[in-house]
Amino acid sequence: MLSVTSAQLYAWIAAFLWPLFRLLALIGTAPLFGESTIPRRAKVALSALIAVIISPTIDHLPLVPVYSLEGFLIILNEVGIGLAMGFSMRLVFSAVQFAGETIGLQMGLSFASFYDRSSGGQTMVLARFLNVVAMLMFLAMDGHLMLLATIADSFASLPIAAQPLTGAGGRRGRRRRHSVLLRDAAGPAADRRAAHP
User: What global pTM score does this model have?
Assistant: First the structure.
């Protein structure tokens, strides 16, 4: 007979919930997934499905009860990371929509507007058209799959922990990453210079 202790059960629930909070925040704010035309139940179901798939791949999950103060800090941290990722993507699509509104104003098409449910107000036809084109390009270039790969990789680069992200830690990581990128970009020329001083 299979016996499960309460400690194992709490560990499994926490292993599911930590990624779920990051995924809910991301899917709630990211373009395409976070549109108001998509029902909330579908967003929660998609987040839960992805959390079930991703949670076994995460290394070093904190052994903290979800209902503790430290668990609450982890939840805030995860929601903050998910919101930051979603809003950074949303910013790109908002820039495209703003470009469409500016183009429409310059062309004299400001009277051609309609109520857009996703933005919650009046939107120019040209701005909505450019936004739809950007969404279709996002899908055609497999941007939705890249988004899912990025969220899966984010658990390695920004691990689940109770400590909040700090500027000092982020800067050190960026410096190391930039030095590796610069070394890789220099490529063979830097290797030749190092070999022949």
Answer: 0.73
